[in-house]
Amino acid sequence: MLIGHRGLAGLAPENTLASFRTAAAHGLAMVEFDVRLSRDGVPLVFHDDTLERTTSGTGPVAERNWAEIAGLDAGSWFAPAFAGECVPSLEQVLGLCLDLGLGINLEIKPDEGREAETAEAALALALRLWPESVSAPVISSFETICLDVARRVAPHWPRALLAEALPDDWREQATRLEASALHLDHRTLDADVVTGIMAAGLPARAYTVNDPARARILGHWGVAAVFADFPHSS
Ligand code: G3P
Ligand code: MG
């Protein structure tokens, strides 16, 4: 299975509405995206902690109010055809993914010191907007504080422990968080690591795999899904 990374970040500007539309247009069933907070506490979909790489703005996201961020161009850096594409709010992305029938992996990516606040705001909104009748969002984060919050406020939604490499204490962490999957950097995986995770009854998903040959090897080891910037069939 292929999960669109930041929407479908190889074909459209990452984490924009265009990126989610592109993922759906290529037949993907699920997308991953990153959620952080503006200064005034609005959950928005954006990867970096600063604005310059992917928008017309500068400086830390956490020092700008939502009204300022919403006015930035988040598409021109990628290609002129995407000029005027905006940084979307989480509310906009949830609404669009529901409209498009896309399953979601909501990665909580907090600024330092705002871990619980970010998780609480993002999950409160998602719990309000995401119908119970639709396949539940997968909640992931590199910050275990965020997954602790998810376990408390959305215990019925699956949680994935997210790390570059498998932590030594992954079994303890997964048990404590009642995690249902591990999301790991594919470069840190080998057959033994994947076998060990599967032996614990947990699926391993790997990011970010843009080489179809590598995806096949990972699948052969037992990796259940890969995050990719491109549809591998093209
Ligand atoms: O959630 C998988 C992957 O997105 C984690 O890395 O830096 O792309 O958010 P990053
Ligand atoms: Mg991510």
TrEMBL record:
One Gene Ontology molecular-function label: phosphoric diester hydrolase activity
Pfam families: GDPD
Signal peptide: none
Domain of life: Bacteria
Matches recorded under InterPro entries: GP_PDE_dom, PLC-like_Pdiesterase_TIM-brl
Biological processes per GO annotation: lipid metabolic process
Name under which the protein is recorded: Glycerophosphoryl diester phosphodiesterase
CDD domains hit by this protein: GDPD_EcUgpQ_like (cd08562)
Annotated GP-PDE domain residues: 1-234
